[in-house]
Design a protein that fits this description.
2-C-methyl-D-erythritol 4-phosphate cytidylyltransferase activity; isoprene biosynthesis; IspD; globular; IspD/TarI_cytidylyltransf_bact; binds cytidine-5'-monophosphate
């Protein structure tokens, strides 16, 4: 029984307004990728960590991760054009004796160790694909194009003015059955291998690639299970998220 964690870190820092890759951006003096890796390594159920990183920053990732002295082996590999491609590149290097794989985003840097532990436990208990999920606080709607006549048809004589573009609500899903999906997600290794092989044709195009691994498993028609997520596992995307993460770290460590 060996568990590997893939920690995706090959994204750019553009939306954070940084020249550094996002995962190297410091939070309280340590790069985001180190915060995430430390929490994975200390959960007690992860035996090795593989980090897909931008090809032109491999040495910097290796240096900050080895300086962090995480207590489990950490390897850095070149990531891909999309998150999906980065996970596939890392998965290809995971040793054959690994039977459970966690996939986590360095951007969810403060996801606590207890969350990784909960996900691995659920996989080891027989659920072959497990994601953390949290309830959705907002009312969520589905939308489609408004179409040229949507306003004129209902209010005769009205013309939708330029600049007042809008979409049309096409569905009102029941909020109580919706969940926001987080990482780390956990998988039976053979199932994750199969899901990535089946979805490989999408990996090279960021607009077609899967945004998480559970959706690749679901596309095979296999069940995906949801365990309770954690508010601290929010994704850090914007400078505001980084400021929030700093506050969370001060409050909870
Ligand atoms: O861009 P976004 O925040 O959705 O990325 C989610 C995660 O996927 C991040 O941890 C990012 O580093 C990673 N990623 C990757 N390879 C890419 C794009 C994103 O590993 N090509």
């Amino acid at each position: 029984m060996t568990t590997a964690a893939i920690l995706t870190a090959a994204g750019s820092g553009t939306r954070l307004g940084h020249v550094l890759p996002k995962a190297l951006v410091p939070l309280a003096g340590e790069p985001l990728v180190v915060h995430a890796a430390r929490r994975l390594a200390s959960c007690g159920v992860v035996d090795l960590v593989v980090v897909p990183a931008p090809g032109d920053h491999l040495a910097a990732f290796e240096s900050v991760l080895s300086a962090a002295d995480l207590g489990v082996p950490v390897t850095v590999v070149t990531g891909g054009m999309s998150r999906q491609a980065s996970v596939a590149a890392a998965l290809a290097t995971v040793p054959p004796d690994v039977d459970v794989v966690l996939v986590h985003d360095a951007a969810r840097s403060l996801a606590p160790s207890s969350l990784a532990e909960r996900v691995v436990q659920a996989v080891r208990a027989g659920r072959r694909a497990v994601v953390p999920g949290v309830p959705v606080p907002d009312t969520v709607v589905e939308v489609g194009p408004e179409g040229p006549t949507a306003v004129e048809d209902r209010v005769p004589g009205t013309v939708a003015t330029a600049g007042a573009t809008a979409e049309l609500v096409t569905g009102n899903p029941d909020r109580s059955v919706l969940r926001s999906v987080q990482t780390p997600q956990g998988f039976d290794r053979a199932l994750l291998d199969r899901a990535h092989a089946a979805g490989a044709h999408r990996a090279g195009d960021e607009s077609l690639a899967a945004t998480d691994d559970a959706s690749l498993v679901a596309a095979l028609g296999e069940p995906v299970h949801v365990v309770p997520g954690d508010a601290a596992a929010v994704k850090i995307t914007t400078p505001r998220d980084l400021a929030l993460a700093r506050l969370l770290l001060e409050e909870h460590g």
